[in-house]
Amino acid sequence: MIQVFSKEVGGFLNSLIAYIVIGVFLTAIGLLTWVFKDTSVLDNGFANLDTLFTMGPYVLVFLIPAITMKSFAEERKLGTMELLQTKPLTDWDILLGKFFASVVLVLCALLPTLVYYYTIYQLSDPVGNVDSSGIAGSYVGLFLLGMVFCAIGILASSLTNNQIVAFLTAAFLCFLFYSGFDSFSALVLEGGQGLFIRQLGILYHYESLSRGLIDSRDLIYFASVCFVFLLSTKTVLGSRSW
Amino acid sequence: MSITVRNLTKLYGNKPAVNNISFSVGPGEVVGFLGPNGAGKSTTMKIMTGYLPPTAGSVTVCDQEVSQQKSVRKTIGYLPEHNPLYLDMYVHEFLHFVGKVYGIHGAELKRKVAETVERCGLTIEQNKKIEMLSKGYRQRVGLAQALLHDPQVLILDEPTTGLDPNQIVEIRQLIRSISANKTVLFSTHIMQEVQALCNRAVIINNGEVVADDTIDNLLARSTDNSLESVFRDLTKTPDA
User: Between vectors from CA B40 to CA B216 and to CA B62, what angle results, nearest 5°?
Assistant: First the structure.
């Protein structure tokens, strides 16, 4: 697994994808958080990072599929999948290597935003008057959400050898899982059913984490959604139906 | 036996690509695997290397059954058809990656990569990106990745297709030099190549073995002492 992981990371660094993804993410989030009047923290009146955590997922909905779209689609198009699958690597080695490489890239995009926390911390009055645990929970949530998006993107990429199809499928699925279930639950009658549908979506668990309470139920939700998508990818790879 | 194929069948949908074929290749043999396009050569090789699962039958390589197991793949070096490579990698970077996949590390990896680069005539090109290489050099990179871990069995799917006559001769010499202590099974459409390299040939047509004999015996079947006429006799379709 580690060989595939380092090859993928090398590929991100060599092909500029890493720099563009991190650059676009930080520019978009930086503008939204600090510059644009409607969403700027400075005009908000409260010392919090709500903009980062509400807009971040929507930026990631587009960025993560862009990272993952080539992972299997390109290998299939070039035929290098055959090269990999006839080497002493299991399908899990290949897909986990690719998955973790994407996750690391997402982590690298998120880490610089810790500077925002420091800024808010210093700007608040009195200094340090921020909801640190809420922000910590939100970071955990945003990272886990990024992992789920990576798993979705990898699955979408394994289903086709066309990168555009992989990108659009992944973006749609990410959006559906992020807020689709939530919107859908509003259409259903009030009560248990609505709540059940909400709980299928990421937003419910993301919001729960952002309150600063890292609940095992939410962690299990994110882990199991990741696992289901990775297992589906494994099934697709194992079927060799291309 | 280095490679044993037993009653191998592969169906694509309902259509058999390979239909109940059996043959074997002994240690140190160089065997040509011939057949018209679409006869099932590549499919057979894909099953041998563990890329595709067989519908029925089995393949053993060095007494291990080919399956999803990793261990058997270490004994096989495989050059797939059309030679897929990571075009955005450098030659030495790609070979280091392949070496690590085979569990070779550190000083041994360095030594093996250097050795393979030299053996495949890639010394001048090793610091170039693969996309910058000509087809002949790419083919050498493909062979290099198949040879790097010093496998006992080499499976080469059309190693000389699309090369110019000089490159064909070079690749052929390379195959000859490496075949000294390895079992080699390769597919080709060039009959001179078979005569130049192999002691035996397996000919398949429509997914079935139509001949499995030494080159001399095959030549004895023909009227004009050419392998080409034997090939045509065995594989022609009735309406052609």
Answer: 70
Chain segment A197-212, per-residue pLDDT in tens: 888 889 889 888 888 8
**Long-range CB contact pairs, B63-69, < 8 A, 24+:** B68/A90
Residues composing chain A: 242
* A152/A99 Cα distance (integer angstroms): 10
pLDDT at A242: 40
Q: What are the backbone dihedrals phi and psi of residue A53, each rounded to the nearest 5 degrees, phi first? A: -85, -20
Bin B222: left if φ > 0, else alpha if -120 < ψ < 50, else beta.
beta
Of B51, B71, B82, the CB nearest to A85: B51
Q: Please, what is the Cα angle at B55 between B49 and B57, to 5 degrees? A: 75
pLDDT score of A101 more than 90: yes
Residue B63 contacts residue B6 (beta carbons within 8 Å): no
CB B160 within 8 A of CB B192: no
Task: Return residues 53-82 of B near A (CB < 8 Å).
Answer: 53, 68, 70-71, 73-74, 76, 78, 80, 82
Look at residue B171 in the predicted model and tell me its pLDDT: 82
User: What pTM value is reported for the model?
Assistant: 0.89
Minimal CA–CA distance to B215: which of B23, B21, B34, B6?
B34
The pLDDT tens digits of the residues spanning B91-140 come to: 999 999 999 999 898 899 999 999 889 888 888 888 899 999 988 889 88
When pLDDT is averaged across residues B53-59 and rounded to a whole number, the result is 86
When CB atoms are compared, the residue of A79, A81, A86 closest to B50 is A86
User: What are the backbone dihedrals phi and psi of residue B153, each rounded to the nearest 5 degrees, phi first?
Assistant: -120, 130
Contacts of B129 in chain A (CB under 8 A): none
Q: Cβ A86–B53 below 8 Å, yes or no?
A: no
CA distance B211 to chain A (A): 28
Q: How does pLDDT run across A42-96, given as a tens digit for each residue?
A: 887 787 888 888 888 999 999 999 999 988 999 988 889 889 888 888 889 999 9
E strand or H helix that includes residue A72: helix A70-78
Partner residue facing B97 (CB), from A3, A85, A86: A3
